[in-house]
Design brief:
8-stranded mixed beta sheet; alpha/beta; globular
């Protein structure tokens, strides 16, 4: 039995008087705890307050504080004064604000500000991967908690998109199809996230694509771990292949574990959880 402190709906920023919040699960400890931040799925369109429970609870029992933040998404647009306040890049700006908030409040919650990792699935996986390749990029930083760094120790990407403009091309290569999802369509999650059809807004689509920030001169100090099912009907498997290949070519610390026969879900987690825990222990817990 583990003693746990649960902090519900902690506000980490307020935009137009709308609170953006996180939940924290902090096991009781005399030592400052390593932290895993998990960003939820939802295509940057929907709010998904629930993160993957089995993984979260196992991490808590292993001595990690787990943080589950929300972030601004398309469905919030009626709450804000301008549509731009729910369009890319606010999602990544929020994700990085979470990290700075945790450092600013580390003493209050018993956290170790030097040991923070991030992970997420689908859109949350994209936000996680983006943090591995955009460390301290001023485009994605805000003035909130500006005295603190948003840089993380490592990142885990579960089947996040990485290159918006090629998603339909990659979907055609997949053994499974989702006839209801055309990524180039004006109502696709990707188009809604950036504020218009991706093929008509290519510059913004590239700015929301992880591969755009991978280069031989990039910061390679944040290891990335990628998982993706090769039968994913929502985010084509090839998206992770392209990201992995480019990162390897440019010299990043990246690992990729394809999941044969799996779709857009975490049904394979039990099979790979030791890889995840070993990765986090190496780069966060024992850092």
């Amino acid at each position: 039995m583990i003693n746990l402190k649960y902090y519900r709906r902690v506000e980490y920023e307020k935009i137009d008087n709308v609170s953006v919040t996180m939940d924290l699960y902090v096991p009781e400890s005399k030592e400052k705890l390593p932290v895993l931040v998990w960003y939820h799925e939802g295509g940057m369109v929907d709010r998904k307050g629930y993160a993957f429970g089995p993984a979260m609870m196992e991490l808590v029992t292993r001595g990690y504080a787990v943080v589950q933040p929300t972030y601004r998404v398309y469905c919030d647009r009626a709450l804000y004064s301008e549509p731009s306040k729910t369009q890319w890049p606010v999602m990544l700006q929020d994700a990085k604000t979470v990290i700075r908030f945790l450092r600013a409040n580390a003493e209050k919650y018993g956290l170790d500000s030097n040991r923070i990792g991030v992970a997420g699935d689908s859109a949350g996986g994209q936000l996680s991967a983006m943090q591995a390749v955009t460390a301290e990029n001023p485009e994605f930083e805000t003035d909130l908690y500006k005295d603190y760094s948003s840089k993380v120790n490592c990142a885990i990407d579960f089947y996040g998109p990485s290159e918006f403009l090629t998603m339909d091309e990659h979907a055609d290569m997949s053994p499974v199809k989702n006839p209801l999802l055309i990524h180039d369509a004006p109502d696709s999650p990707e188009s809604r996230a950036i504020g218009g059809p991706i093929q008509e807004n290519k510059e913004k689509a590239r700015s929301a694509s992880t591969v755009s920030y991978v280069s031989k001169d990039g910061d390679k100090s944040i290891p990335l771990l990628i998982f993706h099912g090769d039968h994913d009907p929502n985010v084509p498997f090839q998206q992770s292949v392209v990201l992995y290949n480019k990162m390897k070519e440019c010299g990043y610390d990246v690992e990729f574990y394809p999941q044969a026969g799996h779709g857009h879900n975490l049904n394979f987690f039990e099979d790979i959880k030791q890889i995840v825990f070993d990765f986090l222990d190496k780069h966060v817990k024992n850092a």
